[in-house]
């Protein structure tokens, strides 16, 4: 066989394989993934979130509100993953 004939034979084989692969892919049936219905999730009670909403409603006055400063510090610590400092307990009997 000469080189031209070998190249033509290779091209015909390549086209035949490509057509076969395309036909197989087109006849394949895709199965749709089974989707679970969304579950209703009850939001848990978060006093920090309620404090943030209260401070949001205060507007500019929240900047001088001690409770808002505490809420913002707690939310910042929660976001940054810091553990809150231990609460200082007064010593009784003195």
How many extended strands?
0
The share of residues in extended strands comes to: under 5%
The number of distinct helices, counting runs of at least 4 residues, comes to: 3
Task: Report the principal-axis shape.
Answer: rod-shaped
Word description of this protein:
The protein is an all-alpha fold and 94 residues long. It has a domain at 47-80. 55% of the residues lie in helices and 0% in strands. It has helices spanning 3-27, 47-58, 66-80. Helix 2 (47-58) packs across helix 3. The longest helix is centred in the N-terminal third of the chain and has 25 residues, at 3-27. The protein is rod-shaped and about 105 Å long. The chain starts with a helix and ends in a 14-residue tail after the last helix. 2% of the residues are buried. The mean pLDDT is 85.
Secondary structure elements and their pairing?
Layout: H1 3-27, H2 47-58, H3 66-80
Helix pairs in contact: 2-3
Task: Describe the structure concisely for a colleague.
The chain has a domain at 47-80.
Attribute tags:
94 residues, 3 helices
């Amino acid at each position: 066989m000469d080189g031209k004939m070998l190249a033509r034979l290779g091209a015909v084989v390549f086209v035949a394989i490509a057509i076969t692969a395309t036909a197989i892919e087109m006849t394949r049936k895709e199965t749709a993934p089974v989707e679970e219905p969304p579950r209703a999730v009850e939001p848990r009670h978060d006093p920090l979130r309620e404090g943030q909403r209260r401070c949001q409603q205060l507007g500019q006055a929240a900047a001088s509100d001690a409770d808002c400063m505490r809420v913002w510090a707690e939310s910042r610590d929660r976001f940054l993953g810091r553990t809150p400092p231990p609460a200082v307990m007064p010593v009784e009997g003195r």
